[in-house]
Amino acid sequence: MDIRHVEEFMRRVAESETKTFPAKGKLKVGLDLGTAYIVLVVLDEENNPVACEKQAASVLRDGVVVDYSGALDIVRRLKAKLEERLGRELINCAIAMPAGTESSAKTHSYVAEGAGFEVSAVLDEPSSANAVYEIQDGVIVDIGGGTTGLAILKGGEVVQVEDEPTGGTHLSLVLAGNYHVPFAEAEEIKQDYSRHKEILPVLKAVVEKIATIINRYVKGKDIDTIYLCGGTCCLTGIEKIIEKETGIKTVKPENPFLVTPAGIAMNC
Ligand code: ATP
After folding, report:
1. I need a labelling partner for 100 at 20 to 30 A (CA). Which of 57, 85, 180, 213 fits?
2. Radius of gyration of the chain (CA)
3. pLDDT of residue 220
Protein backbone atom coordinates (compact mmCIF):
# COMPACT_ATOMS: atom_id res chain seq x y z
CA MET A 1 0.00 0.00 0.00
CA ASP A 2 1.36 3.44 -0.73
CA ILE A 3 1.40 5.83 2.21
CA ARG A 4 -1.79 7.62 1.02
CA HIS A 5 -3.70 4.33 0.99
CA VAL A 6 -2.27 3.49 4.42
CA GLU A 7 -3.52 6.91 5.66
CA GLU A 8 -7.01 6.31 4.26
CA PHE A 9 -7.16 2.73 5.59
CA MET A 10 -6.01 3.81 9.06
CA ARG A 11 -8.49 6.69 9.10
CA ARG A 12 -11.30 4.18 8.53
CA VAL A 13 -9.95 1.77 11.17
CA ALA A 14 -9.94 4.66 13.67
CA GLU A 15 -13.47 5.62 12.56
CA SER A 16 -14.61 2.04 13.22
CA GLU A 17 -14.10 2.66 16.95
CA THR A 18 -17.28 4.72 17.01
CA LYS A 19 -18.99 3.67 13.77
CA THR A 20 -19.87 0.09 12.78
CA PHE A 21 -19.42 -0.52 9.05
CA PRO A 22 -21.74 -3.09 7.44
CA ALA A 23 -20.10 -6.46 6.72
CA LYS A 24 -21.10 -9.69 5.02
CA GLY A 25 -19.18 -12.96 5.02
CA LYS A 26 -16.37 -14.05 7.27
CA LEU A 27 -15.08 -11.55 9.82
CA LYS A 28 -11.36 -11.28 10.57
CA VAL A 29 -10.34 -10.31 14.09
CA GLY A 30 -6.97 -9.09 15.38
CA LEU A 31 -6.26 -9.17 19.10
CA ASP A 32 -3.38 -6.98 20.29
CA LEU A 33 -2.51 -7.67 23.92
CA GLY A 34 -0.28 -4.72 24.71
CA THR A 35 1.54 -3.33 27.72
CA ALA A 36 -0.61 -0.20 27.72
CA TYR A 37 -3.71 -1.15 25.69
CA ILE A 38 -5.71 -4.19 24.65
CA VAL A 39 -7.19 -3.72 21.20
CA LEU A 40 -9.58 -5.76 19.05
CA VAL A 41 -9.92 -4.84 15.36
CA VAL A 42 -12.55 -6.43 13.10
CA LEU A 43 -12.16 -6.43 9.29
CA ASP A 44 -14.32 -8.02 6.60
CA GLU A 45 -13.07 -10.68 4.18
CA GLU A 46 -11.59 -8.00 1.92
CA ASN A 47 -9.83 -6.26 4.81
CA ASN A 48 -12.29 -3.37 5.00
CA PRO A 49 -12.55 -1.96 8.55
CA VAL A 50 -15.78 -3.02 10.33
CA ALA A 51 -15.42 -2.25 14.04
CA CYS A 52 -12.81 -1.73 16.72
CA GLU A 53 -12.70 -1.59 20.53
CA LYS A 54 -9.83 -0.82 22.87
CA GLN A 55 -9.20 -0.47 26.58
CA ALA A 56 -6.25 0.79 28.60
CA ALA A 57 -4.74 -2.08 30.58
CA SER A 58 -1.70 -2.97 32.65
CA VAL A 59 -1.93 -6.74 32.52
CA LEU A 60 1.32 -7.32 30.58
CA ARG A 61 4.97 -6.54 31.31
CA ASP A 62 7.68 -6.82 28.64
CA GLY A 63 5.32 -8.73 26.37
CA VAL A 64 4.38 -11.27 29.05
CA VAL A 65 0.88 -11.60 30.56
CA VAL A 66 1.31 -10.92 34.29
CA ASP A 67 -2.39 -10.68 35.19
CA TYR A 68 -4.12 -13.52 33.39
CA SER A 69 -7.61 -13.05 34.85
CA GLY A 70 -7.42 -9.28 34.33
CA ALA A 71 -6.48 -9.81 30.67
CA LEU A 72 -9.24 -12.38 30.26
CA ASP A 73 -11.86 -10.02 31.72
CA ILE A 74 -10.89 -7.20 29.36
CA VAL A 75 -10.81 -9.38 26.21
CA ARG A 76 -14.19 -10.92 27.13
CA ARG A 77 -15.65 -7.45 27.64
CA LEU A 78 -14.28 -6.06 24.36
CA LYS A 79 -15.45 -9.16 22.45
CA ALA A 80 -18.95 -8.87 23.96
CA LYS A 81 -19.10 -5.15 23.06
CA LEU A 82 -18.14 -5.88 19.47
CA GLU A 83 -20.59 -8.77 19.18
CA GLU A 84 -23.36 -6.52 20.42
CA ARG A 85 -22.42 -3.83 17.90
CA LEU A 86 -22.24 -6.37 15.06
CA GLY A 87 -25.19 -8.54 16.08
CA ARG A 88 -23.14 -11.68 15.49
CA GLU A 89 -20.62 -13.90 17.17
CA LEU A 90 -16.88 -13.46 16.60
CA ILE A 91 -15.22 -16.87 16.30
CA ASN A 92 -11.62 -16.69 15.05
CA CYS A 93 -8.89 -14.25 15.91
CA ALA A 94 -5.22 -13.76 15.15
CA ILE A 95 -2.82 -12.72 17.90
CA ALA A 96 0.68 -11.25 17.97
CA MET A 97 3.46 -10.66 20.44
CA PRO A 98 6.56 -8.51 20.56
CA ALA A 99 9.42 -10.06 18.60
CA GLY A 100 11.55 -12.29 20.78
CA THR A 101 8.78 -13.17 23.24
CA GLU A 102 7.35 -16.02 21.16
CA SER A 103 7.77 -18.36 24.14
CA SER A 104 4.84 -16.51 25.76
CA ALA A 105 2.62 -17.32 22.76
CA LYS A 106 0.84 -19.99 24.78
CA THR A 107 -0.31 -17.52 27.47
CA HIS A 108 -1.55 -15.10 24.80
CA SER A 109 -3.45 -17.98 23.17
CA TYR A 110 -4.96 -19.02 26.50
CA VAL A 111 -6.26 -15.48 27.04
CA ALA A 112 -7.84 -15.44 23.56
CA GLU A 113 -9.28 -18.94 23.95
CA GLY A 114 -10.48 -18.26 27.50
CA ALA A 115 -12.43 -15.30 26.09
CA GLY A 116 -14.10 -17.61 23.55
CA PHE A 117 -11.92 -17.19 20.42
CA GLU A 118 -10.33 -19.86 18.27
CA VAL A 119 -6.79 -18.67 17.52
CA SER A 120 -6.17 -18.96 13.78
CA ALA A 121 -2.73 -17.32 13.55
CA VAL A 122 0.13 -16.34 15.87
CA LEU A 123 2.39 -13.54 14.60
CA ASP A 124 5.03 -11.10 15.78
CA GLU A 125 4.00 -7.45 16.16
CA PRO A 126 6.33 -5.58 13.79
CA SER A 127 5.78 -8.15 11.02
CA SER A 128 2.00 -7.80 11.50
CA ALA A 129 2.32 -4.09 10.80
CA ASN A 130 3.74 -4.93 7.37
CA ALA A 131 0.40 -6.48 6.39
CA VAL A 132 -0.74 -2.81 6.34
CA TYR A 133 2.41 -1.18 4.96
CA GLU A 134 3.33 -3.94 2.44
CA ILE A 135 6.92 -2.75 2.40
CA GLN A 136 9.42 -4.46 0.13
CA ASP A 137 12.58 -2.94 1.58
CA GLY A 138 12.95 -0.86 4.74
CA VAL A 139 12.28 -1.05 8.43
CA ILE A 140 9.07 -0.95 10.44
CA VAL A 141 9.49 0.50 13.91
CA ASP A 142 6.64 -0.17 16.33
CA ILE A 143 6.98 2.06 19.41
CA GLY A 144 4.43 0.79 21.90
CA GLY A 145 3.95 1.19 25.63
CA GLY A 146 6.72 -1.02 26.95
CA THR A 147 8.96 -1.72 24.00
CA THR A 148 10.29 -0.63 20.61
CA GLY A 149 10.04 -3.40 18.01
CA LEU A 150 11.74 -3.48 14.62
CA ALA A 151 11.13 -5.58 11.53
CA ILE A 152 13.70 -5.23 8.75
CA LEU A 153 12.41 -6.15 5.30
CA LYS A 154 14.28 -7.15 2.14
CA GLY A 155 12.40 -8.02 -1.04
CA GLY A 156 9.11 -8.13 0.89
CA GLU A 157 10.45 -10.69 3.40
CA VAL A 158 11.06 -9.99 7.08
CA VAL A 159 14.75 -10.80 7.52
CA GLN A 160 15.27 -9.60 11.09
CA VAL A 161 13.06 -8.77 14.08
CA GLU A 162 14.19 -7.07 17.28
CA ASP A 163 12.51 -5.78 20.42
CA GLU A 164 14.00 -3.46 23.04
CA PRO A 165 12.51 -2.40 26.37
CA THR A 166 11.97 1.34 25.79
CA GLY A 167 8.57 2.80 24.90
CA GLY A 168 5.78 5.17 25.85
CA THR A 169 5.82 4.13 29.51
CA HIS A 170 9.34 5.54 29.79
CA LEU A 171 8.20 8.83 28.26
CA SER A 172 5.41 9.04 30.85
CA LEU A 173 7.84 8.29 33.69
CA VAL A 174 10.12 11.12 32.53
CA LEU A 175 7.13 13.47 32.28
CA ALA A 176 5.91 12.46 35.77
CA GLY A 177 9.37 13.19 37.18
CA ASN A 178 9.74 16.55 35.45
CA TYR A 179 6.24 17.79 36.20
CA HIS A 180 6.10 16.26 39.71
CA VAL A 181 2.79 14.55 38.94
CA PRO A 182 1.61 10.93 39.35
CA PHE A 183 2.14 8.55 36.43
CA ALA A 184 -1.58 8.50 35.48
CA GLU A 185 -1.61 12.30 35.17
CA ALA A 186 1.58 12.23 33.10
CA GLU A 187 -0.13 9.72 30.76
CA GLU A 188 -3.06 12.12 30.33
CA ILE A 189 -0.78 15.06 29.60
CA LYS A 190 1.21 12.98 27.10
CA GLN A 191 -1.91 11.86 25.22
CA ASP A 192 -3.24 15.42 24.98
CA TYR A 193 -2.29 16.56 21.46
CA SER A 194 -2.65 20.22 22.48
CA ARG A 195 0.30 19.79 24.89
CA HIS A 196 2.67 17.94 22.56
CA LYS A 197 4.59 21.09 21.56
CA GLU A 198 5.16 21.92 25.22
CA ILE A 199 6.26 18.42 26.30
CA LEU A 200 8.42 17.43 23.33
CA PRO A 201 11.57 19.19 24.65
CA VAL A 202 11.17 17.32 27.98
CA LEU A 203 10.81 14.00 26.17
CA LYS A 204 13.49 14.60 23.54
CA ALA A 205 16.24 12.65 25.36
CA VAL A 206 14.10 9.48 25.59
CA VAL A 207 13.08 9.77 21.93
CA GLU A 208 16.79 10.15 21.07
CA LYS A 209 17.45 6.95 23.04
CA ILE A 210 14.77 5.21 20.95
CA ALA A 211 16.52 6.58 17.83
CA THR A 212 19.81 5.12 19.12
CA ILE A 213 18.12 1.71 19.41
CA ILE A 214 16.85 2.03 15.82
CA ASN A 215 20.32 3.10 14.64
CA ARG A 216 21.90 0.02 16.24
CA TYR A 217 19.92 -2.24 13.92
CA VAL A 218 19.69 -0.19 10.72
CA LYS A 219 23.23 1.24 10.42
CA GLY A 220 25.04 -0.09 7.38
CA LYS A 221 21.96 -1.93 6.14
CA ASP A 222 21.16 0.29 3.13
CA ILE A 223 17.72 1.25 4.53
CA ASP A 224 16.18 4.35 2.98
CA THR A 225 12.89 4.66 4.91
CA ILE A 226 11.72 4.09 8.48
CA TYR A 227 7.98 3.34 8.74
CA LEU A 228 6.62 4.17 12.19
CA CYS A 229 3.66 2.66 14.03
CA GLY A 230 2.54 2.10 17.63
CA GLY A 231 0.78 4.41 20.09
CA THR A 232 3.90 6.32 21.10
CA CYS A 233 4.29 7.54 17.50
CA CYS A 234 1.13 9.62 18.06
CA LEU A 235 3.50 12.07 19.77
CA THR A 236 3.66 15.05 17.43
CA GLY A 237 7.20 15.59 16.16
CA ILE A 238 8.61 12.19 17.21
CA GLU A 239 9.22 11.36 13.53
CA LYS A 240 11.35 14.51 13.06
CA ILE A 241 13.65 13.62 15.97
CA ILE A 242 14.04 10.03 14.72
CA GLU A 243 14.72 11.26 11.17
CA LYS A 244 17.37 13.71 12.44
CA GLU A 245 19.09 11.16 14.69
CA THR A 246 19.14 8.32 12.16
CA GLY A 247 19.59 10.39 8.99
CA ILE A 248 16.90 8.19 7.37
CA LYS A 249 13.60 9.43 5.93
CA THR A 250 10.91 8.65 8.53
CA VAL A 251 7.17 8.38 7.82
CA LYS A 252 4.10 7.73 9.91
CA PRO A 253 0.37 7.71 9.15
CA GLU A 254 -1.85 10.19 10.95
CA ASN A 255 -3.12 7.37 13.15
CA PRO A 256 -0.16 5.07 13.95
CA PHE A 257 -1.90 3.59 17.00
CA LEU A 258 -4.00 0.97 15.22
CA VAL A 259 -1.57 -0.18 12.48
CA THR A 260 -0.37 -3.30 14.34
CA PRO A 261 -3.84 -4.45 15.55
CA ALA A 262 -5.22 -3.95 12.00
CA GLY A 263 -2.27 -5.88 10.54
CA ILE A 264 -2.91 -8.70 13.01
CA ALA A 265 -6.57 -8.84 11.87
CA MET A 266 -5.47 -9.02 8.21
CA ASN A 267 -3.64 -12.26 9.04
CA CYS A 268 -6.69 -13.89 10.68
P1 ATP B 1 3.68 -2.88 23.65
O2 ATP B 1 3.65 -2.93 22.14
O3 ATP B 1 4.93 -2.27 24.18
O4 ATP B 1 3.30 -4.15 24.32
P5 ATP B 1 1.10 -1.59 23.46
O6 ATP B 1 0.78 -2.58 22.36
O7 ATP B 1 0.11 -1.44 24.54
O8 ATP B 1 2.53 -1.88 24.10
P9 ATP B 1 0.50 0.69 21.86
O10 ATP B 1 -0.92 0.41 22.14
O11 ATP B 1 0.98 0.64 20.46
O12 ATP B 1 1.40 -0.22 22.78
O13 ATP B 1 0.91 2.11 22.43
C14 ATP B 1 0.67 2.47 23.76
C15 ATP B 1 1.49 3.70 24.09
O16 ATP B 1 1.07 4.77 23.25
C17 ATP B 1 1.26 4.15 25.53
O18 ATP B 1 2.51 4.44 26.15
C19 ATP B 1 0.44 5.42 25.37
O20 ATP B 1 0.68 6.34 26.40
C21 ATP B 1 0.95 5.94 24.04
N22 ATP B 1 0.00 6.86 23.41
C23 ATP B 1 -1.29 6.63 23.11
N24 ATP B 1 -1.87 7.73 22.59
C25 ATP B 1 -0.91 8.69 22.57
C26 ATP B 1 -0.87 10.07 22.18
N27 ATP B 1 -1.96 10.68 21.68
N28 ATP B 1 0.29 10.74 22.31
C29 ATP B 1 1.40 10.14 22.80
N30 ATP B 1 1.44 8.85 23.21
C31 ATP B 1 0.30 8.13 23.09
Report:
1. 57
2. 18
3. 86
**Ligand 1 geometric centre to CA of 24 (Å):** 32
Question: DSSP code of 14?
Answer: H
167 lines ligand 1 (CB under 6 A): yes
Q: What is the pLDDT confidence band of residue 61, given thresholds at 50, 70 and 90? A: confident
Residue 30 backbone phi and psi in degrees, to 5: -115, 130
Choice from 54, 232, 233, 238 to test ligand 1 binding pocket (greatest atom count within 8 A of CB): 232
Write out pLDDT tens, residues 114-131.
999 999 999 988 789 999
CATH 3.30.420.40 fits 3-129+258-266, yes or no: yes
- DSSP element (H, E) containing 184: helix 183-191
Query: Do 71 and 59 meet the contact criterion of CB atoms below 8 Å apart?
Result: yes
* Nearest to 98, CA basis, from 75, 123, 117, 74: 123
- Rounded CA-CA distance 256/268 in Å is 20
Instruction: Give the Å distances, CA to CA, from 139 to 72, 131, 223, 250.
Output: 33, 13, 7, 10
Query: What mean pLDDT do residues 90-112 have?
Result: 86
Does the pLDDT at position 103 exceed 90? no
Q: What CATH class does 134-254 carry?
A: alpha beta
pLDDT at 254: 84
